[in-house]
Amino acid sequence: MLKVIINDNFKSMKWEIVFFSEKVSKETMKFPKGILADFLHIAEMIESFGSSLGMPYTRAMGGGLFEIRTKGKEGIGRSLFCTVKDQKVIILHSFVKKTNKTPKQDLEIARKRLKEVQ
Fold first, then answer.
1. β 65-72/58-62 pair status
2. Cis link prior to 32 (omega < 30° from 0)?
């Protein structure tokens, strides 16, 4: 018989999601209804399982920057984030995507904020 011992600390390992600023929080919460619902669903998964969910939920953008990939009937939303010690995710910038590629301006905003929190 195989006995499995579960570490009780594992149950309490929970990730925290915070916003870079009140402005970022507001722009994220202003996502259209369907996109916001998907964001909240993925955020719950990150809190439970960590930030490395992978496609189709999250993707590495390079240089310590990642994206939460949200969809709804209204379109596509992105929330760019980084991770810091103590299992914390910081949402740096959120926007509704209007082109196939992530706009350079949005990446620059997130990268600038990333430098501020590192």
1. antiparallel
2. no
Task: Give the model's confidence band at 12: pLDDT under 50 very low, under 70 low, under 90 confident, else very high.
Answer: low
Structure token digits, residue 15: 């990730």
- Are 78 and 116 spatial neighbours (Cβ–Cβ below 8 Å)? no
> How far apart are alpha carbons 29 and 16 in whole angstroms?
17
Q: What is the pTM of this model?
A: 0.86
Q: Which domains does the chain have, with CATH numbers?
A: 15-117 (3.30.2310.20)
Query: In percent, how much of the chain has pLDDT > 70?
Result: 89
State the pLDDT at residue 13.
Answer: 64
Q: Mean pLDDT, to the nearest integer, of 65-84?
A: 95
Q: Encode 15-37: b = buried (16+ Cβ within 10 Å), e = exposed.
A: bebebbeeebeebbeebeeebbe
Strands 75-84 and 65-72: antiparallel
Compute the distance between CA of residue 89 and CA of residue 106 in angstroms, rounded to an integer: 18
